[in-house]
Amino acid sequence: MAAAPRTAAVADASDAAGTADASGTAEVSAAAPATCADPEASLRPGDGADGPAVQRIKNRGRLIAGVDQDSFRWGYRNPSTGELSGFDIDLARAIAKDILGDADKVIFLAIPTSQRIPALEKGKVDLIARTMSITCDRIRQVAFSTAYFVAGQQILAPRGSSVTAFDDSLKGKKVCAAKGATAESKMREQPHGARLVTVPNQLDCLVRLQLGQVDAVLTDNALGAGLAAQDPSVQLVGKPFTTDPYGVAMNLKDVDLVRRVNKVLDDYRSGGGDSPWMRAYTKWLAADLKGYTAPPAPKYRD
Question: Using CB atoms within 10 A as the burial measure, which of 131, 139, 198, 263 is most buried?
Answer without folding.
Answer: 131
